[in-house]
């Protein structure tokens, strides 16, 4: 099978994911840590980007961005589970996250000459002529961490964080193979994944 996206639920006991197994169509699934088999959530198909208590946030109707064919954009929706009607939060979204208390979303939009980080949607906190991805709202809801690709079309990314006043600072230099970021539970660190440069030990 394959997994396109996965996120922990707020209580840490469940993983919500977009996946497929044994040739079946893509589904949004719930995998509890105390069971072996995931179960369908029964919500609209989309890429899981975040969750709150009893709800999952998805990017649906994904399509290629007109300004950059490599970037899929879609509609950010919040869907209650099990069952219930999904509600659209914002359109033309490339990536998103949800504040821990469920009060607001951070989103990334891509325009022809700029990528924009908004928190909440409609309030721009940071822009770049390059690309942005992986917005992550801090545990206290006051800052948003993100990956910035300073040159559009290049894979070198740096880890940044922006506060509610729109003051951004960067914690790393741009480098290749930076993937995924997360706040530590106490909000004092930002963790990221990625590959070591060729020839590096450890």
Draw up the topology in text.
Blueprint: E1 2-8, E2 14-20, E3 27-32, E4 39-40, E5 47-52, E6 55-65, E7 68-80, E8 87-93, E9 95-98, E10 105-110, E11 115-118, E12 124-128, E13 131-137, E14 143-149, E15 158-163, E16 168-170, E17 178-183, E18 190-194
Antiparallel strand pairs: 1-2, 2-3, 3-4, 5-6, 6-7, 7-8, 9-10, 10-11, 11-12, 13-14, 14-15, 15-16, 17-18
Describe, in plain words, how this protein is organized in 3D.
The chain is mainly beta and 202 residues long. Helices cover 0% and strands 55% of the residues. The protein contains no helices and 18 strands. The strands form 5 sheets. It has a 4-stranded antiparallel beta sheet, with no helix packed on it. The protein starts with a strand and ends in an 8-residue tail after the last strand. The C terminus is likely disordered.
């Amino acid at each position: 099978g394959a997994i396109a996206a996965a996120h922990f639920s707020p209580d840490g006991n469940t993983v919500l994911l977009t996946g497929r197994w044994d040739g079946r169509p893509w589904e949004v699934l719930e995998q509890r840590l105390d069971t072996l088999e995931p179960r369908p959530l029964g919500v609209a198909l989309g890429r899981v980007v975040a969750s709150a208590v009893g709800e999952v946030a998805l990017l649906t109707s994904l399509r290629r961005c007109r300004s950059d064919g490599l970037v899929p954009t879609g509609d950010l929706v919040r869907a209650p589970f099990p069952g219930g009607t999904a509600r659209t939060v914002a359109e033309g979204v490339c990536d998103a996250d949800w504040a821990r208390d469920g009060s607001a979303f951070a989103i990334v939009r891509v325009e022809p000459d700029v990528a924009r980080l908004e928190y909440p949607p409609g309030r721009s906190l940071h822009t770049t002529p390059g690309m942005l991805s992986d917005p992550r709202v801090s545990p206290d809801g006051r800052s948003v961490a993100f990956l910035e690709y300073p040159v559009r079309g290049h894979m070198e990314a740096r880890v940044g964080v922006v506060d509610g006043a729109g003051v951004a600072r960067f914690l790393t230099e741009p480098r290749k193979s930076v993937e995924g970021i997360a706040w530590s539970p106490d909000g004092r660190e930002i963790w990221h994944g990625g590959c070591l440069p060729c020839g590096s030990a450890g």
